[in-house]
Design a protein that fits this description.
Elements (H helix, E strand, L loop, with lengths): L19 E5 L2 E4 H14 L7 H20 L6 H18 L3 H16 L4 E10 L6 H21 L4 H8 L6 E3 L6 H7 L11 E3 L2 E11 L4 H11 L1 H15 L9 H18 L1 H23 L6 H10 L10 E9 L2 H11 L7 H9 L6 E8 L5 H6 L14 E9 L9 H23 L2 E3 L1 H4 L10
Antiparallel strand pairs: 1-2, 1-10, 3-4, 3-6, 5-6, 7-8, 7-9
Helix pairs in contact: 1-11, 2-11, 3-11, 4-8, 4-9, 9-10, 13-14
């Protein structure tokens, strides 16, 4: 870890004249700790100010999670201890650095990041192709992705998640910056608007249909300073070396690494006494790790399908569409006999096999049926509008005058997979609410209202 290795762990000291603001299950929370948490919230929040009492209740819930983690022994795990010591060491350097040198180094890194432009959140239908793919396999993959794309266009953007689950080799939702991906990927995705999806395109890794979920501009330097400090230890070391040189009694020559470590170690040993915010920052980081670990332990990030389907079934009305939709298939047939044959054949097959059956059994030699399948809202398909929603008149298709529609009108999705991200999020919120309720019932929470009135979280702190 270079210079970071010289910084030893330090014990947290209780601040004098620091009254107890909260007692949570026997654990005391001093006023200074809450004020520090409030200042952090103000630095990172762009929303309207939250009332003080609401902040106190939220922080009490946070501490309930922390205490649950400690009771479970999560603070004794090697991973927790390693991450905390690494953070403490890096934070120490932020207090033992030449501020001008540090700011210059961080601004250089921020400028390189800002030059990469906004970041995007994407999900994709991805067909992985090996480097030695044959021409035939490329043609098959292209035809398959073209077919998926046509079906997706008919189903609409709301069906994208279900298509990902069924067809994609990559089901993740991820944030990306320019240069994180290939030039082909960048050219396609950064030109899109949020909520839209691309046509199929090639990259060296395979074929992609990408949906742009959201786009975020690069935050200002002040909002990113803390994260840059975490991500750029070399900036800290550069500024720490400068500070060690300034503190050294011998400045005629450049300090060796050993001399730098000795100077910083001496200053480090005094740090916890001089800087209350240092001690509070380490405590806040430890609590954040523990609260997150306890939450992950209690509420899985990826609940099983049975749990999600059960939750979806209990709250089905919550996911109803604003207007009914028609889920089914539209068949434009070349004759009455073909229409009758198609209707009879498809009635005995599952919906996911309809298009393949038409292609293989009816259109094997000649195109007897024009078919498109999906979930249609009013205004998305002229034949569905005319026959199902009783709106307008569909255009005539010479040679395909006989229309057959198989399906049904729905108020909302039938399976959680159609709105999986929303269902997972709702389930997690409901699960956390039940968990917090149980923690409150099992642990007495006391907030000293008189001490709360003295809270001052607008002071300028390092």
């Amino acid at each position: 870890m270079g210079l970071l290795a010289c910084l030893c762990p330090m014990l947290a000291l209780s601040a004098k004249d620091d009254p107890v603001l909260m007692r949570i299950g026997g654990h005391e929370v001093p006023l200074s700790e809450f004020e520090y948490a409030c200042r952090r919230t103000l630095r990172t929040s762009t929303a309207d100010p939250v009332p003080l009492k609401e902040l106190a209740r939220s922080y009490a819930d946070f501490q309930l999670k922390v205490q649950a983690a400690r009771r479970a022994g999560l603070d004794t795990l090697p991973d927790f201890r390693h991450r905390l010591e690494t953070y403490r060491a890096r934070l120490s350097l932020t207090y033992l650095t030449d501020s001008a040198t540090l700011d210059r180094a961080l601004h250089r890194r921020y400028s390189r990041l800002a030059a990469r432009g906004p970041r995007v959140q994407v999900r994709q239908i991805f067909c992985r192709l090996p480097q030695n793919a044959t021409g035939e396999s490329l043609r098959e993959a292209t035809a398959r992705m073209d077919s998926i794309y046509k079906a997706l266009c008919q189903a609409g953007p709301d069906s994208f998640d279900s298509f990902v689950e069924r067809y994609s080799d990559d089901k993740a939702v991820r944030w990306l910056l320019r240069l994180d991906e290939t030039a082909e990927f960048e050219d396609s995705v950064w030109a899109m608007k949020p909520g839209t999806f691309s046509r199929p395109f090639f990259t060296p890794r395979g074929l992609h249909i990408v949906k742009l979920l959201q786009q975020q501009a690069v935050p200002p330097f002040e909002a990113m300073r803390d994260s840059l400090l975490q991500a750029c230890p070399e900036c800290l070391e550069e500024a720490a070396r400068k500070q060690a040189s300034l503190l050294s009694a011998t400045r005629q020559t450049a300090l060796t690494d050993k001399q730098v470590r000795e100077v910083l170690a001496t200053e480090c040993s005094r740090l916890e006494y001089r800087e209350a915010d240092f001690r509070l920052a380490v405590q806040a980081y430890a609590d954040s790790l523990l609260a997150l670990a306890a939450t992950k332990r209690e509420i899985p990030a990826h609940p099983d399908s049975t749990t999600l389907q059960h939750y979806f079934g209990r709250h089905h009305d919550r996911y109803d569409w604003d207007m009914p939709r028609y889920r089914g298939i539209v068949l434009l047939c070349s004759s009455r006999r073909v229409a009758k044959r198609a209707r009879k054949m498809l009635k005995h097959l599952p919906a996911q096999d309809w298009l393949d059956a038409i292609r293989l059994l009816l259109n094997k030699e000649d195109t007897l049926v024009l078919a498109h399948q999906g979930t249609f809202a009013p205004g998305q398909d002229a034949w569905v509008d005319e026959h199902i929603f009783k709106q307008g008149k569909a255009p005539e298709r010479p040679g395909y005058e006989h229309v057959v529609l198989l399906g049904r009108k729905l108020k909302g999705p039938e399976n959680y997979r159609e709105v999986e991200q929303t269902v997972v999020s709702d389930w997690q919120i409901a699960s956390e609410s039940r968990w917090l309720s149980a923690l409150r019932n099992a642990n007495k929470v006391e907030i000293n209202q008189e001490v709360l009135k003295t809270v001052n979280y607008h002071r300028n702190k390092r």
